[in-house]
Amino acid sequence: MGIEDNSIEFRMESDRYTGNPADYIDDAAGYEALLQNLAEGDGGGGGRRGAPPAAKSAIEALETFQVTSSEGETIMVCAVCKDGMVMGETGKKLPCGHCYHGDCIVPWLGTRNSCPVCRFQLQTDDAEYEEERKKRTSTLSDSATASSSSSSASRH
């Protein structure tokens, strides 16, 4: 009987909500706190969030191809619009190998520099971002080299 009482009580409290009522904001103070939290979480101070757009030269250098299909082949699907790529359409192929409609991937890369599927990063025109990316890449490769050399040294 206790379970029935709790379920009825919860149902009455949550008529306005789907799911957990604690996931919702009901008052102006809650909205203000949420907006403040989002504003502070943007990298500290009005700067751009996330990666910059891909370089125009990188976008122009993408391989353009004609979609062909033969029996037994898998159908390519554009990960941006989620539509199948129809035989005869023109597509764009990123260096990582993923293919998209040209009309979908070019605007995507105009706002961010990464593949929608695997996050492969194309070059940008932002020198500061590229410098940071090189530092991160060299730090990761240095730590991977150190890790592999220490593990091989411990085996000997």
From TrEMBL:
GO terms for cellular component: cytoplasm. Residues 128-156 are annotated as: Disordered. Its EC number is 2.3.2.27. Residues 78-119 form the RING-type domain. InterPro entries: Znf_RING (IPR001841). One of its GO terms (biological process) is protein ubiquitination. The keyword Ribonucleoprotein does not apply. It catalyses: S-ubiquitinyl-[E2 ubiquitin-conjugating enzyme]-L-cysteine + [acceptor protein]-L-lysine = [E2 ubiquitin-conjugating enzyme]-L-cysteine + N(6)-ubiquitinyl-[acceptor protein]-L-lysine. Keywords: Metal-binding, Transferase, Ubl conjugation pathway, Zinc, Zinc-finger. GO terms for molecular function: ubiquitin protein ligase activity; zinc ion binding. Residues 138-156 have a biased composition (Low complexity). SMART domains: RING. Coiled coil: none annotated. Pfam families: zf-RING_2. This is RING-type E3 ubiquitin transferase. It comes from Arabidopsis suecica. The lineage of its organism: Eukaryota, Viridiplantae, Streptophyta, Embryophyta, Tracheophyta.
